């Protein structure tokens, strides 16, 4: 409750030199189609992260003993121009990735994943994807627009950013597209069970080539994460979220994001606290 707030009380870095991984914020919600507020997500996730422990008791991971990690602040964005925002994100992440630093990103709405994937693919080629979400985000248009939080993965496929045979979408409850070639795991197939066996299959699917993790907090049931822009009932539990991320251990993760936390709808801070813990789990992978 004192001092400048950073992700998990980490140093705030102005340079990427020597960093193995970094936390970065992208505070936008201009791409949403329902409730706004995700622009405040990075700040509140940082605020809640100050109580996250630096040692993962469950897995034994101690990332800060082995990695150089810092909070590098937020990407500067022009909140009135979404194409310009995407350009800024792509350029900023290109610099991070070219420095050999793995970005773990706090959104912001899900639009941000599209330009991040552009930067990732420019370095690594088409990547695998573990996408956890209530929605497939594969629409061609949203309210007449090609770029929005519900079109990110359609654009990514069109531009060859994803290795479509190594894409899995987990927790979907809204409309989804089965023509993409993705493996789709609807939320109904996750009810009343552990997802550890599923993640064993996912690890085999992903192999040892680069993958990206994109986690939309609305994948969780609103009972666990009410503070989001497009909530859907019947979602995943917070325990299943941990199983998914811990199930990515050993994969060649070249970046990750957690998006769609909307603090104005998160009256107790539970959603942002959950997000902060899940971002730590991403680092532990």
Automatic annotation (TrEMBL):
PROSITE patterns xrefs: ARGINASE_1, ARGINASE_2
Source organism superkingdom: Eukaryota
Cofactors: Mn(2+)
Keyword Manganese on entry: yes
SUPFAM superfamilies attached to this UniProt entry: Arginase/deacetylase
Signal peptide: none
InterPro entries, per the entry: Agmatinase-rel, Ureohydrolase, Ureohydrolase_dom_sf, Ureohydrolase_Mn_BS
Keyword Hydrolase among record annotations: yes
Free-text cofactor note: Binds 2 manganese ions per subunit.
Pfam families in alphabetical order: Arginase
GO molecular function annotations of the record: agmatinase activity; guanidinobutyrase activity; metal ion binding
Keywords for this protein: Hydrolase, Manganese, Metal-binding
PANTHER family associated with the record: ARGINASE/AGMATINASE, GUANIDINO ACID HYDROLASE, MITOCHONDRIAL
NCBIfam families: agmatinase, PRK02190.1
Family assignment from sequence similarity: Belongs to the arginase family. Agmatinase subfamily.
Protein name: Agmatinase
Taxonomic source organism: Ciona savignyi
Lineage start: Eukaryota, Metazoa, Chordata, Tunicata, Ascidiacea
């Amino acid at each position: 409750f004192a001092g400048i707030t950073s992700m998990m009380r980490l140093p705030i870095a102005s340079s990427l030199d020597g960093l193995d991984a970094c936390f970065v914020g992208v505070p936008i919600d201009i791409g949403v189609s329902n409730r706004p507020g995700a622009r405040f997500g990075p700040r509140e996730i940082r605020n809640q992260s100050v109580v996250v422990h630096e040692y993962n008791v469950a897995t034994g991971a101690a990332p800060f003993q082995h990695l150089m990690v810092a909070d590098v602040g937020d990407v500067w964005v022009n909140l009135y121009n979404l194409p310009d925002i995407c350009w800024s994100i792509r350029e900023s992440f290109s610099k991070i990735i070219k420095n050999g630093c793995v970005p773990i990103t706090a959104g912001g709405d899900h639009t941000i994943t599209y330009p991040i994937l552009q930067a990732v693919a420019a370095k690594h080629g088409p990547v695998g994807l573990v996408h956890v979400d209530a929605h497939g985000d594969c629409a061609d248009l949203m309210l007449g627009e090609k770029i929005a939080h519900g079109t990110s993965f359609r654009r990514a496929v069109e531009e060859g950013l994803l290795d479509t045979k190594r894409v899995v979408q987990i927790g979907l409850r809204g409309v989804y597209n089965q023509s993409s070639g993705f493996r789709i795991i609807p939320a109904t197939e996750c009810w009343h069970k552990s997802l550890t066996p599923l993640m064993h299959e996912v690890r085999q699917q992903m192999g040892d080539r680069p993958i990206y993790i994109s986690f939309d907090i609305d994948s969780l049931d609103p009972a666990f994460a009410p503070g989001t822009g497009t909530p859907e009932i019947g979602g995943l539990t917070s325990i299943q979220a941990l199983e998914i991320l811990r199930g990515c251990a050993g994969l060649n993760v070249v970046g990750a994001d957690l998006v769609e936390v909307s603090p104005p709808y998160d009256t107790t801070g539970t959603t942002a606290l959950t997000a902060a813990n899940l971002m730590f789990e991403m680092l532990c992978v």
